[in-house]
Every structure is written in structure tokens, then in C-alpha cells.
Amino acid sequence: MAYPVKPGSTWKKTSYPSVKNAEYPVEVAGNESFNNLHLASVILGVPFLIVSFMKLPFWVYPILTFVLGLPIFAAYFVYGSKYAVPYNNRVQTPGKKVEDYITIIDPELQQYKGHNRIPMETFFEAYFDGKIDINMDCLELLERRHDWASFRMTAGQAKFFVTQWIPELIWHSKKQDEDQVRDHYDRGDDFYAAFLGPRMIYTSGVMSDVNKNETLEEMQDNKMKLVCEKMRLKKGERHLDIGCGWGTLTAYAAKNYGTDSTGVTLALKQTEFGNNRIKEYGVPATQARIKNCDYRDIPNEKWDKITCLEMAEHVGVLRFNEFLLQIKDMLNDDGLFYMQVAGLRCTWQYEDFIWGLFMAKYVFPGADASTPLYWYIKQLECAGFEVQNVDTVGVHYSATIYRWYQNWMSNKDAMISAYGKRWFRTWEIFLAWSTIISRQGSATCYQIVAHKNLNSFDRVGLQSTSRFSSY
Questions:
Q1: Region of 381 on the Ramachandran plot (φ > 0 left; ψ -120 to 50 alpha; else beta)
Q2: ∠ CA 355-357-242 to the nearest 5 degrees?
Q3: Which of 141, 332, 450, 456 could bond 385 through an S-S bridge, CB–CB 3.0 to 4.6 Å?
Q4: What does the pLDDT look like over 332-350, one tens digit per residue?
Q5: Full-prediction pTM beyond 0.85?
Q6: What span, in angstroms and rounded, lies between the C-alpha atoms of 282 and 427?
Q7: CA–CA separation, 348 vs 363, rounded Å?
Q8: DSSP state of 431
Q9: Strand pairing category for 443-452 and 385-392
Q10: Cβ proximity of 154 and 81 under 8 Å
């Protein structure tokens, strides 16, 4: 059954050479058909009915509400994602059968055929396990996902949300963060090089021109230059890069801007790689270095400039204010703080949640502080920062991930040989799906420049002297 299309509606297909252009950008159900009042009524009403029916003492009611609140919330999402009607969809899908797109090997999944679409979570779990094969390129398959997949939350995802995602959100101990980071980033430099390429940068690049087909390396060089320019890096300044990854930005800043740069990462292999990269860039160890430590263990020294690219998400929602207060304490009064963070949209659709839970389970466990922009701004301002500049670079991320996907697919045989088919397929889905997710706005990325909100701060000096020179 095809998704309903709003009568008289149209959409414009694009053909930019810089990105993977959308094929069928279908709008699925989401918050516009979601009712918070109904949800609250169910969360409060179900325990009340249980207490009333079983004739339990009323003091049991708040306890039961607390215990059942999250499971009821998850069950409500399962129900809503199954029966909610898409809102304002303008795109007609091809209308082909499920078997035109995927080949089901497991007899228990044979029910998904014709126009009986398979739940997305059921698909990717079965694909990882070899119970399903795909009949075309994975990215092209996912561009047509609304023909063969449904975005209803399954019981398995509801269970993961209640039993793993919520506890990880609450806890975020040093040991948990260390285990998650090292399990992820110490897998092997060859694994990451297979899609990140020679720059070994695991953050969004930047297109200089949407009408040019730039390479991944050009986009990452654009990004590093942009970050350094946004930060007004100067020779001799002390620069701290928190969550530095393989250290490329640290080495780049020291080499090209003359900064005294220090990168910090929890991953052991990244530390070794980063210090070797600094040597490769011809930067002396006295000017730049990568240190292996938790961000909470960074010595309380003063820095002129602090950067943090796509690491803050791993701090966790409940520890975010503490993290920003630490940054403010380490930053000189006239210093700048650059934070690049993954974000989510407020006007969510159920696909956004299905993708988010997939990412939390398989790709970035513990990265629960991905939020809409307003939350980051509020956190910064409440911690004593003033936001000087914000750029949204979600489509730049889509272009970056698209190139990662192409790299990954070109190294298919080597990755399967080294890490097995399951790991290859997991990253295949991650990169293909995320190319689409970041392009359509389900997730995005923000570049935020901030400084201490002090009366004495030189705000005029941050203004461009040639703001209107191009007019």
C-alpha cells in the first residue's frame, strides 16, 4: 500500500553534483499527529485502572506510575508508529513489491511480500544476520525504502530503549564512556581508513560550492580551515581540542596557524596515530601533542581557544552543564570556544526515532546528547557563555557521509575479509541511511562559536571588518 499523497502537491527534484540527490523524499508520520495529552493520559491512566481493578491501596498508584511510566511510553510509541497517518506527503513512491527490493532467506520472514512492508528494524537485524539479501546497491535501496519498509517501532527497539538507552543516559560513568569509546574507536585504524580516507577525520566536512563535486579530502580541508578561521587562531596561542579523534585538526592548526595545540582522546590507537600524524606534518612535539585521557581528567589549565568537534554528544544530557562549566573554567576570559555537535529536529518523524535507536545500538552508544539547536543554546547561555555564531551544516554532513559510503563500498572485499560480513553490513546501512537522514533534516550538525558572557569581552573585535564588501 503506497503512502497517501496530499492532493495537488508537488516537489522539485534536485541535481546538485555535490550531494546524493533525493529520489523519493516521502514524509512519514511524526509529531504533527502525536498528542502529548493522550500520552500523559495513558501513562497516568493505566496504573490508575490497575489499582482500581485490583483494589490496591492508593499509595501503590504513584509507585506503579513510576515503574510503568517508561514501558507505557515505549508501548505508546510502538502503537503510534504503527497506526499514525503520514502528514503532508508530496511524493509518490514507485509502488513496487517488497520482493523487487529484497530477497528473504529466512522462512519466518516470508510474510513480508507484495505490499506488506517489513519493519525497518526487522530488516536491518535480519540483514546483519544473513537472513535477508538486498537486490541492489544499499543506498539506492534505502532511497526507495518507503516502498518496502515501514517505520513502526518494534518490541525489540522498545526493549532496547527502556533497558539500555535510558540507563546509559542516566549513568555515563568514566568506565562506561571508556569502554564504549575504546570498543568503537580502537577497532582498527584500517577499519576507519576504509571510509574516512587519508585525513582520518570522523566529523562533517564542508562543501565550498554546492555546484562542485569536491573530494572528501577537499571537504575536510575546507572544514579545518573554516574552524581555524572561525576561532581566529594565532601563532603561539594555546589551543585545546577535546575529543580530537586521530589528531588531524590538532596537527593542522599547529602547522598552518602556529598554535601550541593539544588534542585529547580516550582511544589508545587514536593517541598513537595522532602523535605520528603530528610528526608527519613536521610539527615538533613541543608544539603539538595528543594525550590519552577522559575529558574530566584534563588538567585545569588556561587555554586561549578550545575546540570540540562532535564529541560533546558523548558527554550525555545529564552531564552537559558540568562539561560546559569545565570548559568555561579552562578558557581564558578573552578566549573562544568552538563546539560542533550533531543535532535533531523538533518536528520529528517516526523514522528519526528508528534511525536514532539504530545508531545508539550499533554505531555511537552513549551519544545521547544529540538534541535540537535550542537545547544547546540554552545550555551554553545557562553555563555563562554568549553565542557568537551558529551555522547548520547538515547537508554538508550528507555530502561527507556519501563519500564515506562510496569509500566503504570500494573496500568491501577487504573489510569482509578482515572484520566479517556482519560488521561490513552494519556500516553499509549506517553510512547509506545516514546520507539520507542528514540530507532530509532528520539529523543535522551545528557549528557554534561562543565566548564568556562578560561585560569586558571585546565583542566588536569579533565582527567582520568587511561584512558588506560583497554587496
A1: alpha
A2: 95
A3: 450
A4: 999 999 999 999 999 889 9
A5: yes
A6: 34
A7: 21
A8: H
A9: antiparallel
A10: no
